[in-house]
Amino acid sequence: MSAPDATPGTSGTPDWAVRADRAGRSVTRHFGRRFLFLPGTHLAASTRPSSRFPGQPWNYWWQAHYVDCLVDAGFRELASGARFDGGDRPSAGRLASRLVTTIRLRNFLRYVNRFYDDMAWLAVAVLRLDALAEKAHLPGRRRNGRLQGSLSRQFESASTDDMGGGTYWSTTRDFKNTPATAPVALHFARTGKRQRAQALLDWLDATLFDPTTGLYLDGAWIKEGKLVLAEEVYTYNQGPVLGALLELGGDANLARAAALVGSVSEHLTIGGPDTEGRLVLRGEGTGDGGLFTGILVRYLALAAGDVRLPAPTRATAGQLVFETAEALWEGRTVRTDAVRGTSATYDDEGWLVFSAEPQRPAAETYPAGTAVELSTQLQAWMVLEAAARVRKLSEPGPSLEL
Asked: 295: closest CA among 158, 141, 45, 117?
């Protein structure tokens, strides 16, 4: 007998779409809410449960990745003809549109933020939302041109020749880093500004690439006239670099992309008896770090499906996606404690809570009764969506939008 989340007709093969749906429902039902009780709005709480409603911290870029996850679910809805949260609830695309509008409302009636990486993540997610609307033949909902124009101007102003190139992290303009430069490069590449995108990638390669590990360092300052590197290596920085390299293509970029997948596999996975030799990506904790590994997995899914890359590279990327997803799924727990301030109903699924780190069970990172952070739950949802997309690539018929 197959598992409840197994693909029909198989012997226990995971149905990653079912798992992604369950993760998505846990996020939208238990974190999602109206903003200031206003109809037609949607925003996610930063933590649940919380008695600080509505005075929770404002995490702009977490909401941007929430948009991206909803878009993932929206493309699966188009392919399956069924809504991820049931027929009587809003579609993923509609929720994503409400969320984009509410981000502006919550951000004091503007999309501009003091952090260029925050804005880049939103701009990239909304490009995908517009593609979803177009594929669903809803051109009337393609109303994000003003957002894109406004944020593109911000990216152009922040991508200067100071320090030899790159994009500033914030409006303070004293630090250029991979977290801003890479998603801005990806946005430029996807909006036809290919030369700008290539220049940013070349700067990253010349300035922040570590040849010893084959990975990208965090950033750089100018101090006393000298370039000083922030030498931390984070999982998420590798993701949008990989995405931009694949978007631009060409022999040199594809060779860099293939090498980057290999370096991620070698240096950013975890070992030990709990992983049983699997390629499981390391976690980066809670808070902002709770999103890091999920972002990398999103772009590894692109590599897994890109036929321009060598077959061994695609296989490694797919293995990283599936085995990280499996670790998160195996480590999940189910809560039945009510979350005040939500409209969630507790059915036989309960509230799925995922670990902040793939190598540890959720019962350790989120013991019963503790508050759960949105970032970590979005990360798990993102990873499960990536697994669903990669699995779809191996099945007959049209593939999901990547």
From this structure: 117
Q: What is the pLDDT of residues 255-271, one digit of tens each?
A: 999 999 999 999 999 97
Which residues, other chains included, contact 149 with Cβ-Cβ below 8 Å and sequence gap of 6+?
Answer: none
- Average pLDDT, whole number, for the chain? 91
Q: Which residues of the chain have pLDDT under 70?
A: 1-12, 51-55, 139-143, 272-276, 337-349, 396-402
- Residue 330 phi, psi (nearest 5): -65, -30
Q: Which of 290, 269, 291 is nearest to 280 (CA)?
A: 269
The pair phi, psi for residue 102, each rounded to 5°, is: -75, -30
Distances (CA, A) of 256 to 28, 206, 238, 367: 37, 13, 11, 41
- For the stretch 234-243, pLDDT in tens is 999 999 999 9
148-154 long-range Cβ contacts below 8 angstroms, 24+ apart: 148/123, 148/191, 150/111, 150/112, 151/111, 151/112, 151/119, 151/120, 151/122, 151/123, 151/187, 152/123, 152/187, 152/191, 154/112, 154/116, 154/119
Report CA-CA distances (Å) from 74 to 265, 289, 383: 30, 26, 16
> Do residues 397 and 303 make contact, with C-beta atoms less than 8 angstroms apart?
no
Q: Where are the beta strands (DSSP E) in 2-66?
A: 32-33, 43-44, 47-48
Tell me the HSE value of 51 on the side-chain side, using a 13 A CA sphere: 1
Contacts of 334 (CB under 8 A, 6+ apart): 349, 350, 351, 352, 353
